[in-house]
Design goal:
Number of helices: 0
Shape: globular
Largest sheet: 6 strands, antiparallel
Structural class: mainly beta
Strand content: over 45%
Order of helices and strands: EEEEEEEEEEEEE
Radius of gyration: 16 Å
CATH topology: Tumour Suppressor Smad4
Strand order of the largest sheet: 2-1-11-10-7-8
Oligomer: single chain
Distance between the termini: 10 Å
Amino acid sequence: MITLTLVHRISHLPAQSWTFKDEPVIRIGRSTDNDVILHSAVVSRHHLELQCRGCRWNIINLGSNGTYFADRPITEASVEDGMIVQLARSGPQLKIRIQGTVFKNLASTGADQTLLVS
């Protein structure tokens, strides 16, 4: 499960949150066809994607104004629990939280084995 929280730039308090359980790709941007819609002039229509690859999440910048982590631009990076990314230099900030993820292994025996990774 992954939770994205819009963080208020001045007070650093959470303004809005989105939680996703089983989506392999989460799209963020200004356009209404995104999973997370952010109404800001500096956010691109399709600004970034979070992609689940195996048991890791990656963040991929798609926006023309860039995506930043620790004041450095990123094109693609591994997501770390608790990281805060900023969409454009002056845009909104999102805190990313990764909770335990469930992986199912459907072995050839037909047995269902579940692994919880925290």
